[in-house]
Design goal:
With 405 residues, the chain is of the alpha/beta class. Helices cover 42% and strands 18% of the residues. The chain is built from 14 helices and 14 strands. The protein has helices at 2-12, 14-28, 38-54, 118-124, 150-164, 177-190, 214-221, 224-230, 249-259, 261-277, 280-293, 301-313, 358-361, 387-403, and strands at residues 66-69, 72-84, 87-94, 102-106, 129-135, 168-173, 198-202, 233-234, 245-247, 299-300, 323-324, 327-328, 338-344, 370-375. Helix 2 (14-28) runs antiparallel to helix 3 (38-54) and helix 5 crosses helix 6. The radius of gyration is 22 Å and the shape is globular.
Length: 405
């Protein structure tokens, strides 16, 4: 019912959105004398803000078609060398031969598309052969494809690394830190020749008992049965994933918006002022942010519930009790892959110390292969995007990769 009600509301609002869109064009048309009046400017700006915040967004494009290497512009081609039912491996292939190291960026499966890491990819593609896990929206995946669990996520990471082969490095951003670390531990246990040379984890919830945030507390305040009953819903027609039980992206978005509602209101008011004053570049920056932020995807119910239970409620990985294919995951088996933990001083999603906890959980990894970096003045998003990421954090990742190449 929840998903059906959302779809009904979205379709019912469609005519109003059309009127708002037409109003925005009417009052911003240079041929309309009213567009030069304060009232006309205010209406055009208001319509623009409302249209941006209510538009249904699909999957954004990465749009990375070139980069700069040694002062020379190099073209980039997006290719998909490996397709799987619930995700694919996307490569940003530079059309110039290089011997740079392979880097697998594992994107979060937490409501947003992999394009949320566009800034991450754009920076690392300059001197790495970059691949990224491009997860599919669960509502587009038919039921016959089966389930996607936390166990399946670990299998996918292993398959990606086996496809890329040895001498690969991994960058896990936030949520995938747990399954990626588990996958690498399993590969060490099995003597897999394709274990990565290094693993960088950015704002990862390795042990959420450390310095818990509001997000962590929300996951522990209620029993798992509450989440099953209140946030899990079947996909309605006409989506290809009809009847698949999912945690809808719009629920995740509502949760994130409510955490910082005041900031979002201020940003939209600032966007209105910029449009009214003719500061189009500032307004475009806000619009681009929300075009990405408001584009959400669904997660399978089994993956979401298992993550809530094992990562945030029972803390199985740091307690040494997490299972994969019926066998316990032994983090002590990791003795070759260098580990870099990265945290943001103002991270309100993954608290300080939660990612750093990995170093105590991998006692057999030589001390020289343990790295940690804390970036002052950034929150969760700033760890992998923005000026601090480009200027400082990416440098730390590069350095660890080069030292362990």
């Amino acid at each position: 019912m929840l998903y059906s009600f959302y779809e009904m509301q979205r379709r019912a609002f469609a005519p109003m959105r059309m009127m708002i869109d037409q109003g925005q064009h009417f009052f911003s048309n240079p041929m309309n004398p009213a567009s030069y009046t304060p009232g006309g400017k205010a209406l055009a700006a208001a319509f623009d803000v409302i249209e941006t915040s209510t538009r249904p967004y699909g999957k954004p494009a990465f749009g990375i078609d070139r980069t700069e290497i040694n002062g020379q512009e190099v073209a980039i081609e997006e290719t998909i060398p490996l397709r799987l039912p619930f995700g694919q491996l996307k490569r940003f292939k530079r059309l110039e031969k290089t011997s740079d190291p392979k880097l697998l960026i594992v994107a979060p499966l937490s409501g947003h598309y992999a394009t949320l890491l566009r800034g991450t990819v754009h920076e690392m593609v300059k001197d790495h052969d970059v691949y990224i896990s491009d997860w599919r929206d669960a509502k587009t995946i038919p039921l016959f494809e089966g389930e996607f669990t936390l166990n399946t996520y670990i299998d996918y990471v292993i398959e990606f690394l086996e496809f890329l082969g040895p001498d690969t490095h991994v960058l896990a951003v936030c949520q995938p830190s747990v399954p990626v670390l588990a996958a690498i531990a399993r590969m060490h246990e099995a003597g897999n020749p394709n274990i990565p040379k290094s693993l960088a984890m950015m704002g990862g919830p390795i042990d959420t008992r450390v310095n818990p945030t509001a997000v962590n507390e929300h996951a522990t305040r209620k029993p798992l049965a509450w989440f099953k009953q209140n946030v899990i819903t079947p996909v309605p027609p006409p989506h290809a994933g009809f009847m698949r039980r999912v945690y809808p992206g719009f629920m995740q978005l509502a949760g994130f918006m409510s955490m910082n509602l005041g900031n979002h209101v201020v940003k939209h008011y600032d966007m209105f002022k910029h449009l009214f004053e003719g500061a189009e570049e500032n307004a475009d920056a806000t619009r681009e942010f929300y075009e990405e932020y408001l584009a959400v995807m669904d997660m399978t119910a089994e993956f979401y519930l298992q993550t809530v239970e094992e990562v945030f409620q029972t803390h199985l990985l740091p307690k040494g009790e997490m299972m994969h294919d019926g066998a316990p995951i032994d983090l002590a088996a990791i003795d070759k892959t260098a580990i870099l933990s990265i945290e943001g001083e103002r991270d309100d999603i993954t608290g300080l110390g939660q990612t750093y906890a990995v170093h105590d959980l991998t006692p057999n990894l030589p001390a020289a292969k343990h790295y940690h970096y804390e970036q002052a003045g950034v929150g969760h998003y700033g760890v992998f995007n923005g000026s601090k990421w480009r200027k400082y954090i990416s440098h730390e990742v590069r350095q660890v990769i080069r030292e362990n190449a």
